[in-house]
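Dear support,

I submitted the protein below through the web form. The confirmation email said the job was done, but the results page showed an empty box. After a refresh the structure appeared. I'm attaching both so you can tell me whether what I see now is the final result or a partial one.
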Amino acid sequence: MTKADRLLAAALVCVALAASPVAGARGAEKARSSTVVVRGPSGTVRAPLDRNRTYRIQGLRGTVVVVVEDCSVRVAESSCRDRLCIRTGRVDGVGEAIACVPNGVIVTIVEGGRDDLDAVVR
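What the results page shows now:
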């Protein structure tokens, strides 16, 4: 490795370290403007992603417990057999979703309060 290579590597590390707080601040700002949308047979719940809260949603086969904490959302409990919704874990990005198909519950993260649909199929 030449002296120029070491200098370039050091410069790249400095730029990466300087950019990380900026990226973190943008992520926190985006989380503040994101909304969790929980759709179930009993209706739709909308909640800010940056407020810690637990929701009990009545599904087709029982209760689904959705937890919003630390700017992320997860399904903590479900009455479905396979519990794939629980194993999905936490999601925190706009457009990410968790689905509990047997209970008919879908959890999505949307930007702001917008919930634009591409299509509806019945």
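Response: this is the final, complete result; the empty box was a page-load delay. The first strand starts at residue 34 and ends at 40.
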